[in-house]
Amino acid sequence: MHRFLITIFFLAFFASGNALASTPGLFQGNAAFEKGEYKQALGHLLTAFSHEPADPEINFLLGRTYFELARYEEAVMSFERVLFVNPDSSRVKLEIARAYLALGSKEFARQYFQEVLATNPPEAVWSNIQHFLKSIKDSEQRHFFTGTLALGFDYDDNPRTAPLHDTISLGLLEFQLTGDGSVPEDDFAAILTATLNYIYRPEDMGFFWKTGFLSYNSFYNDENDLNINYNELTTGPSWKNDHFLWQNNLLATSVEIDNERYHTSYGAASTLTSQLFDRFLVTGKIRFEDKDNTRFTFRSAENYQGTAQAVLLLASARLGLTYVRELESAENEVVSYDRDLIELRLDTPLPLGIAFYASAAVKLTLYKEEDAIFLEKRDDEHQELAIGLSKAVWHDSDRHQSLILSVSHKYTDCESNFDLYTYRRNVSNLSLTYAF
Hints:
It is built from nine helices and 16 strands. By secondary structure, it is an alpha+beta fold. A hairpin with a 3-residue loop joins strand 12 and strand 13 (about 355-365).
C-alpha cells in the first residue's frame, strides 16, 4: 500500500514538473515570452493551444502575450477561458482588468479591479490597482483647470535697445543722439506672469475644447515708461489620437505700455503635431492677427505667420529645429516687413533633477519700402543665444502641483543697415513658478 502511494506521488510530481515539456510549443512559448520576443512566443503558444485549448496555463500565457502585442480583445478572450476554469483567480482578474482598460471598457475594468481588492492583495498589488482606478476616474473627468503663476526678476543692460553709438550716420551727415535711449542704460525689472487653462472634454473620444489666458507684466525700476502689460485670450476645439494633435483657436490680445493702450489684435491659429516615428515629432502652425495700433495708427497691420518644427527625441533629451516665416502688412509700407527666423534648441536633464536648455536663433527682417529719412529699405539681422537651468524644488504628485526655480540668460546682437537699430543686449532672469 505504501509503495502504491509513493508511486502515485512521484507520478504526480513528474507530471506537474514536466507540464511545460509535455505540450508542444508551451515550453518554447514561455521561454520566448520571458525574453520579450512576443511574436515568436505567440506562434509557439498557438501551437500549444491547438493541442490543449482548455489548459489554463496555456490560455494565461496566451492572454499575456496578446496584451503585450496590443491585441487586447484576444487577450480578454484568453483570460475569460482561464476564469471559466478558475473563477476565483485574482491574478487572472487583474490581467483581464488591464486588458479591458486598454480597450476602453472602464466599467468592466473597474469591476475586476474591485474584485481583486476585495481579496486583500499584497501592498504592491493594492497600490497598482489604486493607480489604475485613479486613471479611470481621471479619464472620466470632463472639466480640467491648469495654470502657472511666476514671479521673476530681470537684469537688463539695454532695455531701450539703444544703439551702439550715440552718433548715427545719415548719408554724409552725422547726428548726435540725446535723451532716453541715446546710450545703453541698465535697469532691473520685476516680471509677473500668470496663465490659466480650462479644458472641457465631453467624451473620451479625442475631442476637447481648450480656453487659455495669459497675462505678462513687467515693472522697471527706473525706466517706468517701458512697463508692459500684455494679455492674450485663446479658445477653440482640439482633436487628439495616437497619431496627431490638432489644435485650433480664436485669439485676442491687448498691450498696454506705461498704463496706456498700445495696441489690440484679433485673429486665429491652427497647430498640427504628429509623431512620424518613435523619436521624431513634427509640428506645423499657421497664425493670423489683425493688429490695431492705437498709439501709432500707421503701424496697424495684418500679420501672417507660418511655423514648421522638427523635434528629435534622444535618450533623455530633445533637439528641436524651428523655422518661422512672418509677413506683416501695415498701413504704412515703411514699417511693413518680411521676416524669417530659424532656431535650434536643446533640452536635456542634468544630475540632481536639474533641467538645462540652450538655444541659438537668427532672425532676418527686411522692410518693404524705403525710409524717407535714410533713403533705403531697413534690413535687420538679429542673433540670439540663450541658456537656462530649472529645478522643481517642491512637488505634490497627488494634487499635480509644483514649485520650479529657474535662471536664464539671453544675449542679443542686432545688426542693421540703419545705425539707429544696431545694438547689443543682455538679459538675465531669476524666477519662481508655481504650477498647478
